[in-house]
Amino acid sequence: MRDQEIILQAMLRPETYPEVPQRITHFQTYLSHVFLTGKKAYKIKKPVTLDFLNFSTLARRCYFCHQEVALNRRLSPEIYLGVVRITLDQGRPVLNGQGPVLEYAVEMKEMPQERMMNRLLMENRVQQKDIRALVRILAPFYRRARTGKGIDAFGRIRVWIKNTEENFSETRPYVGRLLSESRDKRIMKGTRDFLKNEKDLFPKRIRDGFIRDGHGDLHSANICLDDKPLIYDCLEFNHRFRYTDIACDLAFLAMDLDFFGRSDLSHLLEQEYVRLSGDHDFPRLFGFYKAYRAYVRAKVHAFSADNPEATAGEKKAERGLARKYFQLAFTYARKDLAPRIWVVFGLMGSGKTTLAKALGEALGWPVISSDLLRKSGPGLSPQARQWEPFEQGLYSRSVSRRTYKGLREKAKDFLIQGRSVILDGSFKRQEERLALLRLAGKTGARIRFLQCRTPLSLIRKRLRERSRDPQAVSDGRWELFHLQRKDFDPVTGPVRSALELINTSRPLEQNIRCLLRKFHEQA
Question: Do β-strands 446-453 and 80-89 pair in parallel, antiparallel, or remain unpaired?
């Protein structure tokens, strides 16, 4: 430690550097000392040993300096200039001298401190264009990042069960002090329910190649929004923090945006990444990983508040941050604990089935179709055409009542597991809509009615095309349309207060983006 104190003192003197800077700024992080000279930054690793890293020897610090440069050049090669030696020359430490090596430092181009993303967030100066620019860099980075054997194992569900249960165990001393017992239980329930209900998603993520060697510490303090976004300081000292699902890597930044009160930017980050990557399972995991990231941040600040070397003021600040991050984790868990029913309904040919399927894919929610359920009862195949007169045979009122009752029962099975569902049907009777409101009340679900509408000319075109499609499931046809429209109950009362009209003549992608944005804003 004495040797490093001598080095740190030397790093404050201009003559130590080849460029002989006019000013030197020193600050330290938990693991490093950083010196800014106006043009360059020099980062020296502290000789510490923790559960997750070992910087105890000069050789180890040398190795991890080179690792830091190599890994961070994946995203910002112009920032990471190399590794320099701090040598003892004529009795004093200098950079890259001829004497024996005392220490190693990562040499970087100094970034404008006033453009650091965390500072800009506090000043409310981060814009949507900044998020889009970030995603344009990150999406190809993740496509190129390493995956496969040795990395995939970190995406297994048992790893996440271990990680989350370890969190709950380690934060137990803070329950009642920084987090209430009831909120802790809700966070645990939300986490465990997700891992139970979505257990099949984790091996699918591995098969689809979404477990990658990512950044590991992607938050706003590690991003500079200069002429182009500069992303730096990835975790080089422990690969298990970098080997993770892309959704988990990005969740850190999204959670950070939420923490700063910019949920609009958090949603945009998710939306833009899905658009550029085509990763349609991404939204199913994102909330879970954001909750995990918030809980880990809360845990870190809680630990820091117990640091005996911290001042009383520092401890108070750390407790305050821990409470805020626990609150954020609880907010995410509370969203997950309240399942949703989205009822996509309307007249035949209005586009409700197309919208329901697309929403199911985007949100990862099961879609329950009245058309499929109606035909499964008598054992018909979905494509079996039933050219029945209006409200007769398979479409009689008694069969319709049984169909919609069965639909509610299937929905209830998902809801009591804490899973959200999308219902696809005409729901032309107000009594059927009210029955869904009662189901929502009994299961604690949030309900939303999405009524599809479109011009008659488009409905006629769709129904004619459907009649020629051998794969179509619906038996709706133009000659029945006006009878159904005349028989369609108006939307009134409590249903109307949960209603949103959807114009399905607009592009499907536009409607999906709009609905997902509103979903996140309301959540």
Answer: unpaired
The torsion angles phi and psi of 80, rounded to 5 degrees, stand at -90, 105
The residue among 89, 95, 1 whose CA lies nearest residue 40 is 95
C-alpha to C-alpha distance for 214 and 199, rounded to whole angstroms: 23
Output the 3-class SS for 374-409: HHHCCCCCCCCCCCCCCCCHHHCHHHHHHHHHHHHH
Distance in angstroms (rounded) separating the CA atoms of residues 99 and 92: 10
Q: What pLDDT score was predicted for residue 216? A: 96
| Cβ-contact 212, 246 below 8 angstroms | yes
- DSSP codes, 459-512: HHHHHHHHHT-TT------HHHHHHHHHTPPPP-HHHHHTEEEEETTS-HHHHH
Count of beta carbons in the 10 Å neighbourhood of residue 188: 16
DSSP-derived pairing of the beta strands 340-346 and 421-424: parallel
Which residue in 430, 432, 434, 411 sits closest to 422, CA to CA?
Answer: 411
Q: For residue 497, what pLDDT is reported? A: 87
Alpha carbons 34 and 105: distance in angstroms, whole number: 9
Strand partners, 95: 86
With vertex at residue 388, the alpha carbon angle to CA 357 and CA 492, rounded to the nearest 5 degrees, is 55
Classify 294 as helix, strand or coil.
helix
Angle at 254 between CA 250 and CA 255, to 5 degrees: 115
Spans of the chain, pLDDT less than 70: 1-2, 335-338, 377-394, 417-418, 467, 469-477, 520-523
* Region of residue 311 (phi > 0: left; psi between -120 and 50: alpha; otherwise: beta): beta
Q: What is the pLDDT of residue 397?
A: 85
Q: How many CA atoms lie within 13 A of 4 on its CB side?
A: 16
